[in-house]
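ARCHIVE CARD
Drawer: 12
Card no.: 0347
Subject: one protein chain, sequence and derived structure
Cross-reference: see card 0346
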Amino acid sequence: MRNSLPLVAALLGVVFLAVAVAYFLIPAGSLPAFLPGFETGSEHVHFRHGLVSLVVALVLFAFAWFQRAREK
């Protein structure tokens, strides 16, 4: 179980990084409907949503890094 924790955190970090890129590059009207911020016909880009997703991804990567270093 302990060995899988850094792996899971890193994978979640990759997912949140992809979500951040989507928020930065895709207008709100073209986002998938399951993502918060979807607005039909809107050309607005959700910069803050992307920024929060990026911060969460960086925190998850740091957590995975430190957990992996602690195991050695």
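Annotation on reverse: Residues 4-71 form one domain. The CA atoms of residues 17 and 55 lie 9 Å apart.
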